[in-house]
Amino acid sequence: MSGQLVVAQDLPWPPSVGDFYPPDVAGPWVTKFSIMIWIAVALLIIFFVAAYRKPKLVPGKGQWAAEAVYGLVRDNIAREQMGNAGIRFAPYLTVLFSFILLTNIFSIVPGLQISPNSHIAFPIVLAAISYVMYNYVGVRKHGLGKYLKQSLILPGVPWPMHFLLIPIEFLQNFVVRPVTLALRLFANMFAGHLLLLVFTVGGFVMLGSSSVFVQATSVFSFAMAIVMAFFEALVAVLQAYVFVTLSANYIGTSLADEH
Amino acid sequence: MYLAAEGAHNPILPIWQEMVVGTISFALLVFVLLKFVMPRMEAMYQARVDAIEGGIKRAEAAQAEANKLLEQYRAQLAEARTDAAKIRDDARADADGIRQDILAKAREESDRIIAAGKEQLAAERATIVRELRTEVGTIAVDLASKIVGESLADEARRKGTVDRFLSGLESTGAR
């Protein structure tokens, strides 16, 4: 039945994974996704460099916006998660935050309408950097042995419990953390795009139906698509915040002196 | 294989070219921003904190200074008031004393003048009375001698007749 509709309307219904892989623009290196990534990088560099070309004590609009992002990450994420020692990570976390935020917002930007982060390759890269970073920071601060001991051995536990706890802790700190970091961001953006597809494309499919009743119902589908677009904006900001906050938290636990 | 045949990619498997692109582009972004923008941003952040905290500190110092000055002025004012009151009191006391002195002196002077006048008056009166008495006696005796024809002068002087007469006159005059 749905096959008939697709044929009739030439719309990809139902939305599928294939929708996330548009044809390459020019070979595997120049795809819509890689172009979007370069656009995001260019926009961020232009924005920050322009805003901070001539910084003033009393900021202008652009400088104020750049500093608002930096201030949010510096005070509400870095210092919140790591204390005053974490402020030195604030610059990197700010870049990370603005990059994820901008690429997430692409999911509701007309013309782009999909987030690069719905391809797991990009979240994997970002999570890997955070993974390397928090382990490196921990090893450098405590030394490899002490860092591993701190990460794996819970203090104040009867020793036989360690047979159970050490594998769990290992899994937790060295496997689950980076994987969930990447998967969470990817899955949110993937699902968000899928939701938007379902309601927008679904609306068009209903509009193309032969039944007047189904055609009228398509209004709700479009309304839902609009609501979901706002929801997607919220998710975009939230996921950027969560990713950066968790990265900061992991670095913070590596820096901490106790488990 | 199934997915590839469908022309779709397993979304859980990353496309390695994308990972390369992501790594390079993000590394570029991080490099540029961390090198050229973020240090200045942190410096500006610190400068602003300094400026604000410094401003607050300066304001507090100025406030303290102003309070100190105010206290000082108040103390000085109070001191001046006490001084003025003291001077006024002193002046009033002085003036009182001076007035008392002057009054006393004046009273003394007037008393003295009055006393002197009275004395002089009394002395003059006594002199006049004395002179008058002799004169009246002489005149009376002369007149009587002329009338009687004989010299009564010695007799009258001897017996005090004239004095007695005059005393009688006085006493009737006084009555």
Automatic annotation (TrEMBL), chain A:
List the subcellular locations. Cell membrane; Membrane
- Output the Pfam families linked to this UniProt entry: ATP-synt_A
Is the keyword Manganese in the record? no
- Topology versus the membrane, per the UniProt entry? Multi-pass membrane protein
Name the source organism.
Micromonospora chalcea
Q: Where is the signal peptide?
A: none
What family does this chain come from, according to its entry?
Answer: Belongs to the ATPase A chain family.
InterPro entries linked to this entry: ATP_synth_F0_asu, ATP_synth_F0_asu_AS, ATP_synth_F0_asu_bact/mt, F0_ATP_A_sf
What protein name applies here?
Answer: ATP synthase subunit a
What is this protein's function per UniProt?
Key component of the proton channel; it plays a direct role in the translocation of protons across the membrane.
**Gene that specifies this protein:** atpB
Q: What is its main location?
A: membrane
Q: Where are the transmembrane segments?
A: 33-52, 89-108, 120-139, 190-207, 219-244
- Top-level taxonomy: Bacteria, Bacillati, Actinomycetota, Actinomycetes, Micromonosporales
Q: What's in the keyword line of the UniProt record?
A: ATP synthesis, Cell membrane, CF(0), Hydrogen ion transport, Ion transport, Membrane, Transmembrane, Transmembrane helix, Transport
UniProtKB/TrEMBL annotation, chain B:
Q: State which gene encodes it.
A: atpF
Localization terms from the record:
Cell membrane
Select a single GO molecular function from the record's annotations and give it: proton-transporting ATPase activity, rotational mechanism
Pull one GO CC term from this UniProt entry.
plasma membrane
Regarding the membrane, this protein is recorded as:
Single-pass membrane protein
Kindly state the subunit structure of this protein. Answer: F-type ATPases have 2 components, F(1) - the catalytic core - and F(0) - the membrane proton channel. F(1) has five subunits: alpha(3), beta(3), gamma(1), delta(1), epsilon(1). F(0) has three main subunits: a(1), b(2) and c(10-14). The alpha and beta chains form an alternating ring which encloses part of the gamma chain. F(1) is attached to F(0) by a central stalk formed by the gamma and epsilon chains, while a peripheral stalk is formed by the delta and b chains.
Q: Does the keyword DNA-binding apply?
A: no
Please give the start and end residues of each transmembrane region: 20-38
Described function: F(1)F(0) ATP synthase produces ATP from ADP in the presence of a proton or sodium gradient. F-type ATPases consist of two structural domains, F(1) containing the extramembraneous catalytic core and F(0) containing the membrane proton channel, linked together by a central stalk and a peripheral stalk. During catalysis, ATP synthesis in the catalytic domain of F(1) is coupled via a rotary mechanism of the central stalk subunits to proton translocation.
Q: Which residues form a coiled coil?
A: 52-90
Database matches in Pfam families:
ATP-synt_B
The protein here is known as ATP synthase subunit b
Q: Alphabetically list the UniProt keywords.
A: ATP synthesis, Cell membrane, CF(0), Coiled coil, Hydrogen ion transport, Ion transport, Membrane, Transmembrane, Transmembrane helix, Transport
The residues the entry assigns to the signal sequence are: none
Does this UniProt record's set of keywords contain Protease?
no
Which family is it part of? Belongs to the ATPase B chain family.
Q: What is its main location?
A: membrane
